[in-house]
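Handoff note, outgoing to incoming analyst
You'll be picking up this chain. Sequence as last confirmed:
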Amino acid sequence: MTEAMGDENAGALIPVFRAVTCRGVRRGLRLERVFWEGLSEMSRIEGRTIGDLIADMHDGPENGGSLSSRVRSRVAKHFFERCHALEQALLPDNIGAIVHAVPSPAFALSEERRILYYNGAFISFLQLRFTGAESADVFRRLALSLDTRIEEVIAQLRSAPGRPVTSGFALGISDRRVRGKLNLALIPNAQVPAVLATILQ
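Most recent structure output, in case you need it:
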């Protein structure tokens, strides 16, 4: 850990005293800065004031402990739940659901350029362009290449989240080739790093 990182983490643990109005009652709380930041984020997400959040925590069903302890516990629980929901949303099966929900020909591509999931529109796209080829033969012999290296695509997507990358591509079976353009977006997933590729028609 660098000294700068250590200083930043230490600063997050410095207790800060603030007075907050909770439904007309003025309450003073001493919390570490990281918990005040957590309360601010909860306030933004829920569209409520920090005072209202703290009032709920004060009047909540939890037994024992000071108000400061209740606040710390509720903030930690909130972010644990958000983290768990995000992990569930990014399970591999959900990547497949995302791909199937795209109306255009689309597929999920691994960092090794392996097609992980594809939708019905992508199957129709292949059948139209490789007429006469058996479906099983298409996916067994299908070769994909990108004009931009997949490592560069992922680096661009990570450096500018929310902005897709466009790249040319080629799909081939034996000596038959189809070229086109893809819109590529990163699917953030720690278990199966993948890119959502949508064919531009």
